Description:
Blueprint (H helix, E strand, L loop, with lengths): L1 H29 L4 H15 L4 E5 H5 L8 H29 L6 H15 L4 E5 L2
Antiparallel strand pairs: 1-2
Amino acid sequence: MTLLLNVLWFVLGGFASGCAWLLGAVLLAITIVGLPWAAAAWRIGMFSFFPFGKEIISRVEQTGEHDLGTGPLGLVLNIIWFVFAGWYIALAHVMIGITLVPFIVTIPFSIQHFKLALIALAPIGKAVVEKP
């Protein structure tokens, strides 16, 4: 079922969403100043291509220890991200998700957009892992 949902997602908008995130990652990397956020945008882009069967967790949960992205520096980077990019990217995913809710068939896609909205708010210090 996960494979079928991922294929449908990819064909019906996941490819465009993933490409947009990857383009953002490349643009952030080109600016040099945006390098701290480029890796996070790349991770979100890869997640956006095939989100079913995956979840977003804190890297502390994944590794069991803190790093630069999960400490005070990560908090500052997430605040900067939220102010300059996160809130309106998240708003776009929420709006798409809300438009998909009324149609019963598209509720799983709506849920994925809400997950993308959550990670778009504060992507630093997060990891994408396979669901058990």
